[in-house]
Amino acid sequence: MNVHTYEKIWLVAAMVLIVAFIATITYGSVGLGIAMVGDQQPTIEPTELGDDERFGEPRVEQVGENEYEAYVVAQTFSYQPDPIEVPEDSQVTFYVTARDVIHSFSIAGTNVNTMAIPGEIAEMTVEFDEAGEYGIVCNEYCGPDHHNMEGKLHVVSADEFDLTDLSADGPDEVAVGDSVDVDVVVENRQLEDLETTVTLEIGDETVSEEVTVPGGDAVETTLSVDSSALGEGDHDWTVTVDDHDSSGSVTVLEELDDDADGGEDDE
Amino acid sequence: MSNVYIDQFPAEAKVIRAAFYSSFLALALGGVFGIIQTLHRTDFLRFMDSVDYYTVLTAHGVFLVISFTIFFLVGIFTWAVTTSLDRGLEDIRFTWGWYSLMAIGITMTGVAILAGFTDAIDMSASVLFTFYAPLQAHPLFYLGLVLFVVGTWVAGVDWFRSWWAWKAENPDERIPLPTFMVLTTMLMWYIATLGVAAAILLFLLPWSLGLIETVNPLLTRTLFWFFGHPVVYFWLMPAYMMWYVMLPKFSGGKLFSDPLARVVFVLFLILSVPTGIHHQYLDPGIAEGFKFIAMTNTMFLLLPSLLTAFTVVASMEHGARQRGGEGYFGWLKALPWRDPVFTGMALAGLMFAAAGFSGMINAGMNINYLVHNTFWVVGHFHLTVGTAVALTFMAVTYWFLPQVTGKALWSRSVALGQVVVWFVGMTFMSNAMHRAGLLGVPRRTAEPQYEGFEFQAAVGSIGELDAQIALGGVLLTISLGMFFANVVGTALNGRSDDLPANEYAGALSGPDDAPLVLDNLKLWTAIAVVLVIFAYTFPLLSIIDRGGLFGPEVIPFPLTVESATTLGFALETAASTSFESAGEIATSALTAVMR
Amino acid sequence: MRISKAALLVVIALTVPILVELRTVLAWVNVELTVLESAVLGMTMILAILIWALWPQNGRGDPSRSG
Ligand code: HEM
Ligand SMILES: [Cu+2]
Ligand SMILES: [Cu+2]
User: What pTM, to 2 d.p., does this model score?
Assistant: First the structure.
């Protein structure tokens, strides 16, 4: 074959270029240890996400000192959880799956980007150095409302961040003289123990209690206020733990007939 | 008798005309949808519901990259085979047969898509041209695609028949270059289309008919990309053929090297298919190693394109020097810029070089994460298929149309203006799309304006990028208008006796310099098949092993009526619910599942 | 004319990608041109090209002028 000299030079240059590309990218992904979305995770039944340990309750969980895991479900046309909150200076591994059709989980303007395919779980580890807010978009067409599919990712400062969950429950009615008992559950999904104060405010009364919630655990307690101090009528109450609060209301009645006791309410 | 194509091969000219006009109809429709969606997305003009945006986008994609490109290329392939073998097709009824298959097929698909605009017909196919399951289209959509592809298969047989007949009469001759290019391209196409054929016939069509309950979304998606990458070369190789066998002629010279042109097409044949997984770098369920193999193959696929760049420029320079051009760069002045065919192809080639750059970014496994499915990608392929291919096709139309109609081109000046306006319009549109993509603006989205956050623009603002995209889109639409004015004007012209002869460029270094082995199509096909097996067997097996052949239980979207068991029955009862109502049903079904 | 009218048209068309890409590249080094500035720059480039193209070449002047 008759190949012109210039053509030979070009050919060699082209091959060198190609090999250089491959080398750079190999170094970029293997050498620097940047993991790509692959087949690390097992498959999952998309119709049974509700019973799944990880995706039944999509959430963020702490797994190491600065390490977190986020279980995210993409579905027409939203993400769970939303917003996703993680602390700064952390390393977060996202596990993303889809409940129905193919979506994506893409943090706008970054290279955090993966497909969410029903039946498959994408795994991706991301480091967040600074606090900030990001938009999450679905960039894989998923149906008529695709353009409304968005979520938010908040990277918050270490002091603001916690994985505490508070729930409180109180009676609807009590008779004057009985005590109003509010049951409180404080859950701590971080690893470290949480030492904090649970405060119940009702009318002018305030009671509080110091609690220590072990990491990855929950604590139950009951705070009580004597209803005579409140007097008859409706009273709103609020339970607070750090930045979280939960509220309800109670009616204090003059006298409860024996048969009316708890009659309407079976909570 | 003159040397114009229509006089040499009147019957073939008629088929080619039919293919061209089908192609132009698709281009016109696609163009209208293109400007509608551009103005809608950028929020300059919204006269439809955003839900309909996806129907428009499906139509834009399918009409442009399936009908426009493929109808045009079967036209020029027919021209290439008949001209270079200097013989008519074996049986013109056979030829009309495949043309009809293609036409019927694409009409069915088109009807299924366009029916999505009205609630009156219970049919929709707003699944975009990638039709990823569990998004589900009406069976007519899939069936039409199948017929269309089968039509192209038969077309390939037609050209092979010509070649076999010719070879029997000329046993010792080298395959003429244009025919060689057609045959290698078709061999590549046969291998490539096995992917979609399997996806549609084994899974999607039976599923849309209710014959099977579920599909494996990752499997059908992988089979789609088995085809989805090489289809790119199915569009590109005819454009390359034009750059090799026509551009040198229009520059006033000869092709630099016939053997290297053959090498390039052989490389495309063997490397086009085992790369499709590079569209799935972000897919969970495919091991990194497989992605890596696809990436390596993709990078080697750069080689034939780089070689083409060299040959094209070298041939142009040769032509310019024949025309009296001098100096290092001075020869550029001697090129026939007045000729819209030449200028259009040269500008298309230039844009393709830019596209090569953004393509290398896409191909990088890790950099891909930044741009995958963003508007960047749309910017990229409007340079490749939307310009390198489309502009080349439009430019050569100015030469082919007179050849197959026997009528003189209506206006050379309008034609020159048209290719230049396309170039300028695409520069604006594509540049802004690339930049918007880097900010994370997604593709395929009716309203990329979100409630919870805003994209942070690096220069200017999102508003400015949108304006630039809209400006580009308007210029492109004007350019299309000029193109159609010329097509119609030419068709209305009377017969002309003053047309150039039907011929293609000779080569400086001719076929006799090419080693014989290059013409051994069986060998190259075998190598191609081995590479495909190597690249795809394990990924496919692993996907099936993980998710099952028919996948997990998924909810088809839109939901289909269950009872459609036979094909005929299904076609009569438009089997799927319309998209909007299906959306509601699915959402409520989902909430029900969640509770 | 130094170049043909058609070549001039193409050269002018080529200023568009040069300008658009220049603006993109400059943004990376934190030089941000506004739309107006870019348009003015573009006009200047085109004007310069026009002057270059239409200027009579030395020696062989424009036939109509050298009369
Ligand atoms: C008037 C000229 C054109 C305009 C204004 C235009 C505009 C657009 C826009 C704005 C999109 C992006 C929509 C989105 O992602 O939301 C798009 C997508 C697309 N365009 Fe064009 N385009 C034009 C011509 C072409 C041509 C000539 C081709 C190919 C031959 C083409 C092929 C495509 C394809 C394949 C898509 C992707 C469809 C999808 O994502 O499913 N376009 N076009
Ligand atoms: Cu989505
Ligand atoms: Cu590709």
Answer: 0.88
